[in-house]
Amino acid sequence: MPLFKRFPLYLTGGALVLSLTSPGLAALDISGSSTVQPVVERLVSVFTEQTGEPVQLAGGGSGAGVKNALSGASQIGMVSRDLKSEERTELRHTTIGLDALAIIVNRDNPLDRITKSQLVELYSGRIDNWRALGGPDLAVVRVSKEVGRSTLELFEHFTGLQSPDRPPSDTPRISQKAYVIGSNLEALTLVGGLPGAIGYVSVGTAHAMAEAGLPVKVLVLDGVEPSNAAIADGRYPIVRPLNLVYREPTPSVSAFLALALSPRGQDVVKSLGFLSVDR
Question: From which residue to which does the signal peptide run (predicted)?
Fold first, then answer.
């Protein structure tokens, strides 16, 4: 298979930097989750239009968002998960929306639903061919996430599997055969291009890309479709907050957070397939 086992982020912009700065001006720096990034990209356009303040935006994952906010490299970190107890002692956070982790396959795969136990069998490597689940005679291609991505942490928590890149332990592992990538877009691109592929990504991003023509589909998980209603009432099993984290509520940070929670900001959240907090 003419694919590398790891895909550098620059191939699809997982660490893409969007700079709306002008030379000599200090910028509001925002970095982190590739799930939250599309929301913030649209908010940045409104923010600069309203305030005239420059913004520098980068991806890199939720881990990078926390790290950069803690170090002061970024005034705001984007984090698509709950904060850990030790993070809460040093960072403040504002939840701007809700998301779910969607299980995706190529559109040509006849499978339309999956259970947690089947997901574990697939990702552990115990199932290597889709025939075992009533599908075509096709090898399973697992697409997973790199350490530092909140989508990986959610997937690990739900399945009880751990990335093979974690420190040694007795916890069952995700198969070494899995392709390890960074951003949601990378995962969606691979699954859309490989008939036997399976992956896990933000449900908002998955629906948006499927509607744009990418040949992927979201599976029903344990009998529940990741609809807004199922996410809001807790029936869907893998739900997460979309957070903006920061150390100090400077005037620029406070203004950006106010925009994100405003009716206009929440319309942006909803337009990208996420659940707003003003519902």
Answer: 1-26
- The CA-CA-CA angle for residues 198, 180, 41, to 5°, reads 90
Q: What proportions of the chain, in percent to the nearest 5, are helix, strand and coil?
A: 35, 25, 40
CB distance 166 to 184 below 8 Å: no
pTM of the model: 0.78
Cα–Cα distance measured from residue 31 to residue 278, given in angstroms and rounded to the nearest whole number:
24
pLDDT band of residue 26 (cuts 50, 70, 90) is: low
What pairs with residue 243 in β-bridges?
79, 95
Q: Are residues 257 and 196 in the same domain?
A: no
Distance CA 204, CA 206 (A): 5
- The residues facing 198 across adjacent strands are 105, 142
Per DSSP, 166 falls in state: S
DSSP structure string for 102-122: EEEEETT----EE-HHHHHHH
Judgement on whether residues 111 and 140 belong to the same structural domain of the protein:
yes
* Same domain, yes or no: 119 and 187: yes
Report how far residue 84's alpha carbon sits from residue 75's, in angstroms, rounded to the nearest whole number: 19
Give the range of the structural domain holding residue 249, as residue numbers without chain letter: 9-98+242-276
Write out pLDDT tens, residues 55-81.
999 999 999 999 999 999 999 999 999
Q: Indicate left, alpha or beta for 222 from its phi (over 0: left) and psi (-120 to 50: alpha).
A: left
